[in-house]
Write a structure and sequence with these properties.
Elements: E1 5-10, E2 13-18, H1 25-33, H2 45-64, H3 70-84, H4 103-120, H5 133-137, H6 143-179, E3 184-189, E4 192-198, H7 199-222, E5 226-227, H8 244-256, E6 261-262, H9 266-271, H10 274-300, E7 311-312, H11 330-354, H12 364-388, E8 394-395, H13 397-405, H14 415-418, H15 420-433, H16 437-443, H17 449-455
Length: about 475
């Protein structure tokens, strides 16, 4: 009769594990203890892959130092490679939010890798005298160095994907900047008429804002290359050989194809989470900028009959259960909400970092969870905004031009000739009577018609801005 369960023991007792499961007793205890988000860490496949890369680098190092046999090393490395290739991710079941500073996640990885390795060797799962989750897979490691190193690797690689999404959004705005380069409109400060600009300039500004943060994100990304792998429990490197730290970084570089380097102060690196705070701050900055842009898009498209109505957002779905024909700016709205979540995550990460005590910050699980959620939400939101909104935006050039010609602030161009006081009087008269600035200047015989046509060309007000 086929066995349905195996018995695993730890110092707290024993538990039945379903025989086809690759995780073990510590993973099962964590699953039972932490039912917080109702998801497992397998929601973050990049993180699982990063954990496997760390374990592979450590196994290669321990073999080189003579602490693992060839058979043990080969089996562990093959197990890690299969996880890196995308297999067994369903076995990573612990909740991402957990007590214990990430120990449950680390042991989930150790147990799964050990049992895959045992299966590779033709041994039954749970035969830990041959390959043990702690003694062999976790050799020369602590959760306190393996776990944060995997978080940093994950973030480093995901940032490239976030930048790709930002580039899609940036390029969509650049495309509209070119399309709208000859459409004159009224610029506004404090929601009041200011001076003319082109709609193309407005959209180019959005592209530039995003491009700036792509570059700043690259600088922040470099901070993630400093890791504390080899620090073990508190940074002193207890239970490692003297050569271990340098060797494990070399193997980590080889496994990841990235130039990670050892922190200059391993005790500091083990307790300090400020790099994650910095990365979160970059995410918050990006979210704030894109949300501000979405606010502008909703305002510029407002109406269509009783709002600004300078642009049209592509209609995506009916907007009301009671008002026929109403269409809402749903794509900017959803991106606004993603931004709110990212900003809130930054507060959580700041508090978690500040609440670390002495030689370890035990709140790295919530830090990692919030960072992973934020980066994945932003990636999807920004690509959706580009594809389902920005690329489909159209302009209402007549509305834009009428706003320019009817604005009293056209008189701004006359300041150098009339002076501020006289120009203000003309603007005030235009606002009082509803007449155009053009007509008032002619009535007061301040200029000839020919002079006015030259002076009040709106294009003359934007010529100093870089051409699109």
């Amino acid at each position: 009769m086929e066995k349905l369960h195996r018995i695993e023991k730890d110092f707290l007792g024993e538990k039945e594990i379903e025989f086809d499961k690759y995780y073990g007793i510590q993973t099962l205890r964590a699953k039972e203890n932490f039912n917080i988000t109702t998801i497992g860490i397998n929601l973050f496949p990049n993180f699982i892959i990063s954990l496997a890369k760390v374990k592979k680098a450590c196994a290669l190092t321990n073999f080189e130092l003579g602490d693992l046999t060839q058979i043990q090393k080969d089996a562990i490395v093959k197990a890690c490679d299969r996880i890196i290739a995308g297999e067994f991710h369903d076995q990573f079941i612990v909740d991402p939010i957990q007590g214990g500073a990430g120990t449950s996640t680390n042991m989930n990885a150790n147990e799964v890798i050990a049992n895959i390795a045992l299966e590779i060797l033709g041994e039954p799962k749970g035969s830990y005298s041959i390959i043990h989750p702690n003694n062999h897979v976790n050799m020369s490691q602590s959760t306190n160095d393996a776990y944060p190193t995997a978080i940093k690797i994950t973030l480093y690689e995901l940032i490239f994907k976030l930048q790709d999404s930002l580039k899609i959004l940036r390029d969509a705005f650049y495309g509209k900047a070119v399309e709208f380069k000859d459409i004159l409109k009224m610029g506004r400060t404090q929601l009041q008429d200011a001076v003319p600009m082109t709609l193309g300039q407005e959209f180019k500004t959005y592209a530039t804002m995003i491009d700036d943060d792509i570059n700043r994100l690259s600088k922040a990304q470099e901070l993630l290359k400093e890791v504390n792998l080899g620090a073990t429990a508190i940074g002193t490197g207890i239970n490692t050989k003297p050569e271990y730290q340098k060797l494990v970084i070399k193997h980590l570089q080889d496994v990841t194809k990235t130039d990670y380097y050892m922190a200059r102060d391993m005790i500091e690196a083990t307790q300090d989470t400020s790099t994650f705070v910095h990365i979160s701050g970059r995410f918050k900055s990006i979210a704030i900028k894109v949300s501000k842009i979405c606010n502008d898009l909703r305002l510029l498209s407002s109406g269509p009959r009783a709002g600004l109505n300078e642009i049209n957002l592509p209609p995506m779905q009916p907007g009301s259960s009671i008002m026929p024909g109403k269409v809402n700016p749903v794509m900017p709205e959803v991106v606004n909400q993603v931004a709110f979540d990212v900003i809130g995550a930054d507060v959580t990460i700041s508090m978690a970092s500040e609440h670390g005590q002495l030689q370890l910050n035990v709140f790295e699980p919530i830090i990692a969870y919030k960072l992973f959620i934020s980066i994945n939400m932003m990636r999807r939101a920004f690509e959706s905004l580009a594809e389902k909104c920005i690329k489909g935006i159209t302009a209402n050039p007549e509305v834009c031009m009428n706003n320019v010609l009817n604005s009293a602030t056209l008189v701004t161009s006359l300041n150098p000739i009339l002076g501020y006081e006289k120009s203000s009087a003309v603007a005030k008269e235009a606002l009082r009577t509803g007449k155009r600035v053009y007509d008032i200047l002619l009535e007061q015989k301040l200029f000839t018609q020919k002079e006015l046509e030259e002076l009040l060309q709106p294009k003359n007000m934007v010529h100093n801005y870089d051409k699109i």
